[in-house]
Design goal:
Helices cover 38% and strands 21% of the residues. By secondary structure, the chain is an alpha/beta fold. The protein has two domains: 172 residues, Rossmann fold, CATH 3.40.50.620; 94 residues, 2-Layer Sandwich (Pantoate--beta-alanine Ligase, Chain: A,domain 2), CATH 3.30.1300. Bound molecules: adenosine monophosphate. Adenosine monophosphate (AMP) binds next to α2 and β5.
């Protein structure tokens, strides 16, 4: 595995691979890698000849009151994990090179970025779409892999790729969970032992919601009410939102449709730690 931190060097490397007819896959991450990230790298391997994993804790997607400075980092461990998962190039740019002093340009996707996470993190997706655009221009991939864990991010990035005519394919990887159901996240290390135990409720609530939908419940507020009851029974849990939405528009549905699918998603804080999770539920 080659480690590259300079933008120019990364662009030259990917140009050379492209000239040699290789298919390039990129997996953008903020590091502190876990099995969720590694599953994305494995998936990229199946679709590309050359897999580039990027590690960059992107300051523009954090609000001033968020956890940018204390976001977990361990580049040595990440290097070993990225390599063992099949990364060919690990791209680790510096903040100074990605955002020099006179940096002026942002990419904004309208509308869908205001829903769900956007209500609580109004500048978040502007940071995400900006960094992803930069990473696409630097790594010039044919395919890019993102996790369903960040369901809204997938919708937003697909919209951006379509609107801005990026010539690449977005591949979505399923959510990887702990044995007890908690979705893997770099932020899980923030949880105290007690919060960690309580956090199991998120996946249980999503599974309960899925059962309701499959049993034919059509009223979103009944399902959300039940989920809220389960979650708030945990003493440390504070709900930011629980939503049952159309998976494309991300707008809350007024009734569960008779066919198709709904995106059930939530954000819940346990102490200082904000966790998100979701489930895409199909109605046959
Ligand atoms: P992050 O490092 O948190 O920005 O995540 C980098 C990529 O990994 C994003 O596309 C995430 O959606 C994906 N990811 C994070 N956690 C998981 C998980 N538990 N399962 C699948 N993909 C994940």
């Amino acid at each position: 595995m080659r480690i590259i931190s300079s933008v120019r060097e990364m662009q030259q490397a990917t140009d050379n691979f492209r000239r040699a007819g290789k298919l390039i896959g990129v997996v953008p991450t903020m590091g502190y890698l876990h099995e969720g990230h590694l599953s994305l790298i494995h998936l990229a391997r199946r679709h590309a000849d050359v897999v580039i994993t990027t590690i960059f804790v992107n300051p523009t997607q954090f609000a001033p009151n968020e956890d940018f400075t204390k976001y977990p980092r361990d580049i040595e461990r990440d290097t070993a994990l990225a390599e063992s998962a099949g990364t060919d190039i690990l791209f680790t740019p510096s903040t100074d090179e990605m955002y020099p002093r006179e940096y002026r340009t942002y990419v904004v996707v309208e509308q869908i970025t205001k829903m769900l996470e956007g209500q609580f993190r109004p500048t978040h997706f502007r940071g995400v779409t900006t960094i992803v655009t930069k990473l696409f221009n630097i790594t010039k991939p044919h395919v890019a892999v993102f996790g369903q864990k960040d369901a809204q991010q997938v919708v937003v990035i697909k919209q951006m790729v379509k609107d801005l005519n990026f010539d690449l394919e977005i591949i979505v990887a399923p959510i990887v969970r702990e044995q007890d159901g908690l979705a893997l996240s770099s932020r899980n290390v923030y949880l105290s032992e007690s919060e960690r135990k309580q956090s199991i409720v998120l996946s249980s609530a999503l599974r309960r919601a899925e059962e309701y939908v499959h049993r034919g419940e059509k009223t979103p507020s009944r399902i959300i009410g039940e989920m809220k009851k389960m979650i708030t029974a945990q003493p440390s849990a504070r709900v930011d939102y629980i939503s049952i939405a159309d998976p494309a528009s991300l707008e809350d549905v007024s009734a569960i449709p008779h066919h198709g699918s709904v995106l059930i998603s939530l954000a819940v804080r346990f102490g200082q730690t904000r966790l998100i999770d979701n489930m895409l539920v199909y109605i046959p």
